[in-house]
Amino acid sequence: MPVSATAKRRSERRTEHLVMELLTAQGWDTRKPPKGNIYQQHEYKDDQDLFELLSKASKSTGKHAGLPEAIVVDTEHHQPLAVVEAKASRSDLAKAVAEACSYADALAQGTFRPLAIGIAGTESDDFDIETHKWNGAKWVPITYEGRPINWIPNEADLKRVGNPTGPVEIRPTIPPAEVL
Question: 43, 32 in Cβ contact below 8 A?
Answer without folding.
Answer: yes
